[in-house]
Amino acid sequence: MLIVALYLLIFLVVITVLKYRSSYQMRMSQFLISVFCRAENNRLYLRRGVEVRPGFLGKWIEFTCVENENVDQMVHQMRQRFLKPCLEQKSLQFERNVMGQSDLLKEQLDIEQQIAKRRHSVNHERDLREQADVAAAVRESRSNLNDFSEEQEMSMQALGQNVNS
Questions:
Q1: Cα–chain-centroid distance for residue 132?
Q2: What CA–CA distances, in Å, run from 15 to 5, 26, 56, 155, 162?
Q3: Are the beta carbons of 78 and 86 closer than 8 angstroms?
């Protein structure tokens, strides 16, 4: 009885390993045949108006005639066929999940308004500081008229020296 139980246990383990291994090999073979077909399409077939695709589970290869004459149009059509459904599904899902929630949209508008108010207040404060700095500089220059004239004379002398040399 122990030998029969041991035999069944070994048999089940072997079958499980073989199933996993063959499943892995099937997935890998399908992936490799699809990569091969893609490479051959880009290298040779699309220029001649033929598209090569792997069949169900990679068990066969399908040849399809493409009616576009320009290679760029064919490549564009292939990209649209593969990318467009995925992008459309994502945009529809986004529309349902995000754009359909009015509370979320209101919260987003509130956040944007708060950011705009902060920017406006920061800009207003900066403008006030700049105006105060300019007013202080004007007051200082009016009180020290001689200092300004001395600076002007020095700059004129520097210009004269540059012209002479």
A1: 45
A2: 15, 16, 25, 97, 96
A3: no
